[in-house]
Design goal:
By secondary structure, the chain is mainly beta. It contains two helices and eight strands. 14% of the residues lie in helices and 40% in strands.
Length: 124
């Protein structure tokens, strides 16, 4: 499937030093949890994403031409109790989750807008 990446993103991907990041939005009943795979706070689209560093992992991104559901697995390890309590205390099944790919420039700023790579529902 063809991708409509912006020229800025394409240029950064082809550069000698690449800083890819992933941003995730989890829409819980009590509020939206926004994390990214870096450190500190990253602001995009008017929202602050909390850096999870190496604590967040994901696997199973899949794309196919058929209209089939493909599972993607997100994992959080060593996270603060305040974040863990969301998963333990709330009924999050069938709540929306979105995942975006982005690249950072040498100053740590986002290049253009992140690209949606997954949108689905949380399960277990």
């Amino acid at each position: 499937m063809a991708r409509d990446l912006t020229n800025g993103t394409k240029s950064e991907i082809e550069a000698s030093c690449l800083s890819p990041v992933v941003l995730v939005e989890m829409f819980f009943t009590s509020g939206t949890l926004r994390l990214w795979t870096g450190y500190g706070t990253l602001t995009w689209n008017g929202h602050d994403f909390t850096g999870s560093g190496l604590l967040m992992g994901f696997s199973g991104f899949e794309e196919n031409a058929d209209l089939q559901a493909a599972a993607t697995k997100f994992t959080l390890t060593g996270v603060p109790v305040s974040i863990l309590s969301l998963a333990l205390a709330e009924d999050y099944q069938n709540r929306k989750i979105s995942c975006y790919f982005a690249v950072l420039d040498q100053q740590g700023a986002l290049i253009d807008s992140p690209y949606l790579i997954f949108s689905g529902k949380m399960d277990v």
